[in-house]
From TrEMBL:
Family stated for the protein in its record: Belongs to the IMPACT family.
Domain Impact N-terminal: 22-127
Coiled coil: none
Protein name: YigZ family protein
UniProt GO cellular component terms: cytoplasm
GO biological process: regulation of translational initiation
Length: 204
């Protein structure tokens, strides 16, 4: 059974792959993304790289629990490019990813069926060329306490082998931790029950 707090993604851009059909060329790419700004940047870079290409069709999915996605045909017939690409993102069950297929028209029309096949294959090639990894959905907490309570806090962190992402250790101390979602509630309780220690969830 798939664990509910695990998701699949890629950590670095795929190698470029190429699919050809009746002299049309399709260059395929996959990128890790965490917001729409990054999607725009990758598209701009590809447009500089492929100045003479006719279509930059893509799909992306961002998020682990609140999912946002978009599929773009970029001038190809409706649903002949973006959705076939997005279909492959769903089929590989990956998120926080952008897949782009760049087309150079070769002079022969492929028809809607041919286009669907080409964009689907291009997306598949990009995903096959990517290293897909599993990651956990984490909850981030800020723990605030006076310096005198440092030992109590650090003891819990050590006992539970928690991952500290940042810390400010002065008179007023703050420690930031990242915890797997399924363990988040028990970790929260562990700190919440310590006198003079405050724990709050933060959105990083």
């Amino acid at each position: 059974m798939e664990e509910s707090d695990v998701y699949k993604t890629i950590v670095k851009a795929s190698e470029e792959t190429l699919f050809k059909d009746r002299s049309s060329k399709f260059f395929n790419y996959a990128f890790p993304v965490s917001n729409e700004e990054e999607v725009k940047l990758h598209l701009e870079e590809l447009k500089l790289q492929h100045k003479n290409a006719g279509h930059f069709c893509y799909a992306y999915q961002i998020g682990t629990e609140d999912i946002s996605y978009r599929a773009n045909d970029d001038g190809e017939p409706n649903n002949s490019a973006g959705m076939p690409i997005y279909g492959q993102i769903q089929s590989y069950e990956v998120t926080n990813i952008l897949v782009v297929v760049v087309r150079y028209f070769g002079g022969t029309k492929l028809g809607v069926g041919g286009l669907i096949n080409a964009y689907k294959t291009g997306a598949q090639m990009a995903l096959d060329a990517s290293k897909i990894v599993k990651k956990t959905i984490n909850v981030d907490y800020e723990i605030a306490f006076d310096y005198k309570n440092m030992n109590k806090v650090m003891r819990v962190i050590k006992e539970r082998n928690l991952n500290i992402t940042n810390q400010v250790l002065e008179l007023d101390c703050k420690v930031y931790i990242s915890v797997r979602k399924k363990e988040a509630e028990t970790v929260f309780e562990a700190f919440n029950s310590i006198y003079e220690v405050e724990i709050n969830q933060v959105d990083l």
